[in-house]
Amino acid sequence: MKSTMQHVPLAISRLLNQGSRFHATSTVVTWTGDGTRTLTYAQVGARSAQLAHALRGLGVDADQRVATFMFNNNEHLEAYLAVPSMGAVLHTLNIRLFPEQVSYIATHAEDHVVIVDGALVPVLSKILPDMPTVRHVIVTGGADGTVLKRPGVEVHAYEELLAAQPTEFKWPEIDEDDAAALCYTSGTTGNPKGVAYSHRSIWLHSMQVCTAEAFGFGPADKVLAVVPQFHAMSWGLPYAAFMSGASLVMPDRFLQAEPLVRMIEQERPTLAGAVPTIWADLLRYLDDHGGDISSLREVVVGGSAVPPTLMRAFLDRYGLRIVHAWGMTETSPLGSVARPPGGLDEQSEWEYRISQGRLPASVEGRLVGPGGEVLAHDGVSVGELEVRGNWVTGSYLHDPAPEKFDDGWLRTGDVGSLTPDGFLHLTDRAKDVIKSGGEWISSVELENHLMAHPDVVEASVVGVPDDHWGERPLATVVLRDGATADPAALREFLAARVARWQLPERWAIIEEVPKTSVGKFDKKALRASYAAGELDVTSLA
Ligand code: ADP
């Protein structure tokens, strides 16, 4: 028997309508450095319609790709809403990638238009000559776009382009399975790969973000979206905000701890999302300078493993609850969220909270061992996590990448265990786990212990070649000003916490751990520095 239910496409234009009509007075605040720019969702809706008309005028009449080269701000939000709603495909370019990567991605995606923040015009001007598919560049913020001019490319000013347009747009009927947005993985190995989200997958994912199981967005919330709009769609926060009526606070290019604390004090957001390195910076800033972050009821942190000491420090010193989440570009990105079951004592609750969290009903997970065997969800067996679900990609754009899929499941490259009640405990990324003799050492576990030492600001552990063991851990550590600990003391500190055979013999005190384009520890760069003999390594046996 077929159901009797209606079928209405899950279109982004419905999110746009919901937010701009029923949550007309919710706001998006964009930080400008010395102040803010505030627009209501009604205004964002009207400007999205104007943007869609303007894009039509530039020849966007089907599924052309409209790229953004932008920070988090109201204009970027307008592109998020207008481009998919008009039936085109939004492509969020990562502004921090190397120029060759950006041009490769833009050409692979066949971007037709690029919307660029005024502040990023100098960066784009160096890449644009290698973006042969681009016909139009739209510059925001009233900046001069003259340097972008070249044969075959027209340059427009965002506000001028919008000003002449009507504030209503008749959004077309779309197929919910059509692509709405495109995001490339940052390509730590090989070329970046394109993930095309559908209207349907974004819709369902937005509903998940709004659930209490995930971020619990409501109309009284104000969400500080620090995670870039080019990093896995800002974890879906903008769409979920338009769905639920939660207001948004956008930091634009002001991502350092000092302006972030000022933003929190002034705008009083209730929720926030960012990678662990941002929160670690914020914690150091607050410890040194003070600040009021009491408006935040919780913050969601993911993208890499959150050190338990960071979670403890925020809770003990600032009463702030960090919620740990796992996800990837390929999973839209949610992913699991660590919300413990009720009725637990403090210690057991903590064990749940430091895990990567529970997989939701729409994302199934399984663990696969080295021989391809499916392992038990017993909290003990360790294997590669594979996932499938309604907002998990089933292939890559123009790239079937068979090595990334296993019988319809996405191979995540993450290694860990699953408990019978669905909680994920990641040991490491498969490529970062240190293979010493026949045994595996988790780089993340060593880092977490090291970062619990009071003298340590950051610590990153990578596997380096070793004649005897194949690979051994190298610990790179950033020390606090005035720290007294040295590698020998740190090794002794670790010795009380991990098995002896896991203790690193190689140590380097460094100025800063290199970061990837989305703010994660860049272990590839560390391994390369070690191989090139650039690190001052102390050997301890
Ligand atoms: P990139 O691979 O360039 O970092 P993504 O943002 O898509 O791009 O990264 C997804 C990966 O980030 C996951 O496969 C996992 O390795 C890591 N990750 C994300 N969240 C967590 C977490 N909470 N704990 C540990 N690793 C995480």
Describe this structure in words.
There is one protein chain. This protein has 541 residues and is α/β, with parallel strands linked by helices. It has three domains: 12-24 and 36-195, 3-Layer(aba) Sandwich (Rossmann fold); 328-429, Luciferase, domain 3 (Roll); 434-539, GMP Synthetase, Chain A, domain 3 (2-Layer Sandwich), CATH 3.30.300. It contains 15 helices and 28 strands. The strands form five sheets. An eight-stranded mixed beta sheet has the order 2-1-11-10-12-13-14-15, with helices on both faces. The longest helix is centred in the first third of the chain and has 17 residues, at 41-57. The mean pLDDT is 96. Bound molecules: adenosine-5'-diphosphate. Adenosine-5'-diphosphate (ADP) binds at residues 185-186, 188, 232, 302-305, 324-329, 356, 412-414, 426, 429, 518, 520.
How many β-strand stretches?
28
Any idea of the CATH topology of the largest domain? Answer: Rossmann fold
Q: What is the highest CATH level, the class of the largest domain?
A: Alpha Beta
The tally of structural domains comes to: 3
Strand content: 25-35%
Low-confidence stretches: none
* Alpha carbon gap, first and last residue: 70 Å
The radius of gyration is 23 Å
What is the molecular shape? globular
Structural class: alpha/beta
CATH architectural arrangement of the largest domain: 3-Layer(aba) Sandwich
Helix coverage percent: 25-40%
> What's the number of helices?
15
CATH homologous superfamily assignment of the largest domain:
ANL, N-terminal domain
Task: Summarize model confidence as the mean pLDDT.
Answer: 96
List the ligand species.
adenosine-5'-diphosphate
